[in-house]
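Dear colleague,

Thank you for sharing your sequence with our group. We've completed the structure prediction you requested, and as agreed, I am returning the results in plain text so they can be pasted directly into your records. Please verify that the sequence below matches your submission; if there's any discrepancy, let me know and we will rerun it promptly.
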Amino acid sequence: MKRRDFLATAALFSLFAGEAQADTKKKKTSSKRKSTTKAKRKKPSTSPRTSAARASSAAAVHSADSPLIDSPPEGTSTSRLPPVRAQELPSDWQSYQITTTLRLNAPGKHARLWLPLPSSVETLYQRVSSHAWQGNPHTAAIQREPDGQLEILHCEWPDASNVSLQLVTRVNTADRHFDITRRTVAPERDDILRTNLRASRLIPNDGLARDQGERIVGRIRDPLAQVKAIYDWICENAIYDLNAQGCGTGDINYQLSSGRYAGRSADINGLFVSICRAIGIPARCVFGLRTGSSRLFQSLGLRSEDASQGQHVRAEFYLPGYGWIAVNPSDVCRAAAYEKLGSNDSRLSSLKRVLFGVWEMNWVAFHNGTDVQLPGRGSRMPFFIHPEVQLDGQKVAESGITGRVWSISVRRI
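Please find the predicted structure tokens below.
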């Protein structure tokens, strides 16, 4: 084709295009309804339904690098929230008096005490009424870290002759419940959520934890359903170790590498926190003390007023619009071990349903801090839940003094 013929053809096509555009404008003006119908047919890929369908074809991937708080999936409980309603104050409160007593006689030695305290942050399930202490410490101070990370009473005696201290704390508690039909809370601060997505010394958020989380979650997209799958898996696979000491070691790295998911509350609930963080859902352990008998099972509460060995760790996770939601898979495993409940026992199934979203508040929350640096103490602690007493920089148990020098008693008022 000659150049002049090509130019003529191009001019002809441009003329037709101009006429077509003019016709289109006339049609849009004369018949808007018809034009709208055609537009919908031409662009089906931009409709919300099609976009959601395309999004649902890929599995949700949340991790510490791409967390839930940044981009909640479309069509899930965090993007289709119920209307906000005013918070309802609990009507059934119970009051406890917690008395911690220290007695020690080590002349010529420098003594220090660090005592965890109930959280002073007022919530719908816990309120501290008062602290009152008496004794002979040289210095005594209550120290608080922000955001519920740590609250302690720190005392020192330059000469540990006839050391004495008694701290009396009064706390009011009410059972804590989660209602999926009610959205009542303001969004949590981003820095707090980021903190509860990070790994700690004993709680990883990647590697084996992420692999395990992805196997458990599979193609589940709804964040609440993802957490429920993790909770169910832990209740079915973790073993409460009746021979372990205290609340356990909390070493989740060891559990994941060994494939043996056993321990106590710091181990089992710590495993829940680790896997949640690994798939991008903020979660944290909450350290505290049992304060009364349980209405669920005898093994889930105190059997007397002696709470010296009543320390217990619980857990919670965060969903946008709902805030922090309570869980307690370790007590499911504890009841199974102490009450000898089989996996098919209906009582165990009922308990598992109850403890997802509920804390029976025969327990008092202290703090949620990990990798704790106590004032005046050299090294960090993975978690802090028992009172610690040192003589000349050594734990009492390592200094040659035998027996427990402190005790805790709880009385319901």
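Summary note from our side: The chain has two domains: 94-172+379-412, 177-367.

Kind regards,
the structure core
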